[in-house]
Design goal:
It is a single chain. This protein is of the alpha/beta class. The protein has one domain: 3-Layer(aba) Sandwich (Uracil-DNA Glycosylase, subunit E). Helices cover about 40% and strands about 10% of the residues. The protein has 9 helices and 6 strands; from the N terminus they run αββαααβαβααββαα. The two termini are about 20 Å apart. The structure holds uracil.
């Protein structure tokens, strides 16, 4: 993966379990977001999943419940997963670019994402997925390329330096605003499911 924006001073390579990483992240004060939210929304799902989903950051429902994607967008995400015979605790691990809710659900700022990304990168290393789906432009721009456009990049496979297959697609919240995005996301998730099944057959 192209680590475009990344705080290299925050070295988490000695942390070897998700539980330990989660407990350290709970006390994170590396940016201002933690002082305005209820708590860290670390991530959830199957810690050994072959597929990882990465969103933007917690909203109000996620902040209250301490879990990712549990509001309206999350319910839609569960339906999208169900449509390809997947389920969040069995087939995927879900995390966000930032782990604390930005005020008013705004997108995270560059410095906030930079401060938080080391947590996500270590999560990726520990889960060790074969496939990552980037949900929306915040995930795309912070993990791949700051100027990248989701409308241009969605639906096309990218491959990280370590061989992880990466599929950018629209964020489920964008589908709630614009139903014409449903079909492309459906198509993208079918590609993801096919690749997932291929991986499963090979390993
Ligand atoms: N939107 C996100 O990007 N992440 C969540 O966890 C919830 C909504």
């Amino acid at each position: 993966m192209n680590k475009v924006i990344y705080d290299k001073d925050h070295d988490l390579s000695s942390i070897n379990t998700l539980a330990e990483l989660h407990s350290l992240a709970r006390d994170c004060r590396r940016c201002g977001l933690r002082s305005g939210c209820s708590g860290v929304v670390f991530g959830e799902g199957n810690p050994e999943a072959r597929l990882m989903l990465i969103g933007e950051g917690p909203g109000g429902d996620e902040d209250r419940q301490g879990r990712p994607f549990v509001g309206k967008a999350g319910q839609l995400l569960d339906k999208i997963l169900a449509a390809v015979n997947m389920e969040r605790f069995t087939h995927v691990y879900i995390a966000n670019v930032v782990k604390c809710r930005p005020p008013g659900n705004r997108a995270p700022q560059t410095d906030e994402a930079a401060a938080c990304l080391p947590w996500l990168y270590r999560q990726i290393e520990l889960v060790s997925p074969r496939i990552i789906v980037l949900l929306g432009s915040t995930a795309l721009q912070n993990l791949i390329e700051p100027g990248a456009r989701i409308t241009v990049m969605r639906g096309k496979w990218l491959v990280s330096k370590s061989g992880i297959k990466i599929m950018p697609t629209f964020h489920p919240a964008a589908l709630l605003r614009d139903t014409s995005k449903k079909r492309p996301v459906w198509e993208d998730f079918q590609k993801v499911r096919d690749e997932y099944l291929r991986e499963q057959r090979q390993h």
